[in-house]
Records
---
Amino acid sequence: MPLIHILDDQTANQIAAGEVVERPVNAVKELVENSIDAGSRSIEVEIAEGGLAYIRISDDGCGMEKEDLSLSVERHATSKISTADNIYHIASLGFRGEALASIASVSRMKITARIQGSETAQWISVEGSHITDRGETGAPQGTTVEIRDLFYNVPARKKFLKSERTESGRINTMLGKLAMANPGIAFRLINNGRTVIETPGNGRLLDVLSALYGIDTAGEMLPVSGEEVQMDGFISKPSLLKSSRQYQTFIVNRRVVDNPLISKAMDNAYHSLLPKNGYPVAVLHLRVPPETIDVNVHPQKREIKFSDEQEIFRAVYHSVLRTLTTQSEPEEVAASMIRVPGHDEGNSMGTFLSGKAGDPVLP
Ligand SMILES: Nc1ncnc2c1ncn2[C@@H]1O[C@H](COP(=O)(O)OP(=O)(O)O)[C@@H](O)[C@H]1O
Ligand SMILES: [Mg+2]
């Protein structure tokens, strides 16, 4: 008797979900990226109990017609690419066609969608990778995905989650970053019934910063522009530092990324002006030819690979340094250095640092 067998869909999806949705924030990111890809102008996210009890994402994007709605929760089902080569040319954030299938396999999901020109919306309920119910209803154009009881059928995963507050903090931070990457989209986050993020969607990045971090912080930001590589964004004056990297957002071609190379280049540029233990607030948006990056190197698509890392490093370093040396007052730089006793001595920065690690995004 053969020992090898093909796993059933539900099992395969759950295993894939282990990589794609480690915690609630990953589900929120995937769903919001779908809304962005759908051309939405406005995206509303509602969560309860850190996302474990409830997540809802409503958008006003293109919606889905009946047939696509059923296909959307299938594994490897995507409208965004048709060959692997497409990954190196497309502008969409999704491409693997596995997010909805993965999330559906570890939650109870309902999707309601209405396309332009249709009188009614279609909905499906999905449980454990199978469509259990469907129907027609009234709803505005766009898509709403509701997720209840995330990880209800994978209790082992729940053990690795932190407190509700930590999980909702992560969602808060992530949504803020997605809002910075998309200033033309109005974002709202409702946490346990309370609106905690609201951005105007008017296309101005500084207004997003102001909505997230407060008007005072926004007022302390210096604009960055790129010469070697197309780049825009803001970095904080040397007088405004935080004690964690949480307030640093790096975006490449509208994709929020974790990139040690960009972090390092920025650190190095500040290093000549500031002590080690403070982190500036920053949002940098790089725009590079799509074929010069590989976006398919991380299960959660959080990391990317540049084909010419040196060029990116140099470009970020020079742009940040140029901004700091030409736009901040020399006295201010000197003053901040004087105010910090013992330069490299760990925690001796006193009130100089204006945030604590783990602070929520909102002031
Ligand atoms: N909010 C949405 N609006 C419109 N279409 C959507 C939305 N979310 C998902 N879809 C459709 O479902 C498909 C599958 O989504 P997903 O599993 O996230 O894979 P991917 O984003 O990689 O294509 C998408 O390609 C898209 O056609
Ligand atoms: Mg997707």
---
Amino acid sequence: MISLTMRFIKIIFFIYVFLISTNLLSQSNTYNTSIPNKGEGLNAFLIRNNLNPTEHKAEFIELNKKNLGKKNSLRKDVAYNLPNTEKWIEEPLFGKDRSKFKLDSNILKGTVFHLVSGHGGPDPGALGKYGDKTLAEDEYAYDITLRLAKRLMENGAKVNMIIQDENDGIRDESFLKMSDDETCMGATIPLDQMKRLKQRTEAVNKLYAQNKPAYQRCVVIHVDSRSTGKSIDVFFYHAPKSKSGKKAAEEIRSVFNTKYNKHQPSRGYSGVVKDRNLYVLRKTIPTAVFVELGNIRNFSDQQRFILQDNRQALANWMYEGLLNDFKKHK
Ligand SMILES: [Zn+2]
């Protein structure tokens, strides 16, 4: 008898937990409601609620079918559910927890960004030592590139991640595990440097042609090393004679200057804009900026990379610079 009672209590308990959990889940699907005015037709009602009838009528009818009259007429005193107009985007490359995110604005609508994270595949790029840990340039560049991609997409841009790693989303840990399974949009990355650079440049140029005449920019992101181990400023390179590249680089540098002066006034930061005869800059058809974010062998520069907040800040600043560039030079 006791065990039967216990079983009964258990069942009730599970039903209770189930109800709570489904209720919690359904909360993400709660809708705003609105009551029709007297004699108001469906189209007029939708328009009054800032919903475009062509876009939202079908969904509205689906949501409210139980409460609609003949020929989908609205009933008096019924609070109708309004379709959600929030737009969500999905990008599996950002990792499980971040693959679905909300569109914040359409400020970059119509733009296309080709983001090239440095190195990858068989080439980890520069290696730094931090205690007994090894920091690989390609992993940190990739994480920052993903964060930049997300910011751009959240604001309406179309982004092509040229270098991809299916299983490394945006990572919050300090020490990013090395892997060599990155691809160039699905294709194996060759070890030979010339072949490697040619592959990614051709990928960008192909996408550029497909997206013409949209506003397009290419950003190449590196975390480099200097043999001296000294702290370096952030370098923004553009192709020789590229006016648009120089402007884009200057816009990004200007954001970095402002932020560094605000956060580390004692450091005397100076980002450097320079032209440089690099293969990826020379051969890339869209306007391109090559960013070198610091020296992975320098202790103080390493702080820029191992803290996820700092990686996010670097991505945010590049985003702001690219946005300013777009606003001024589109
Ligand atoms: Zn590099």
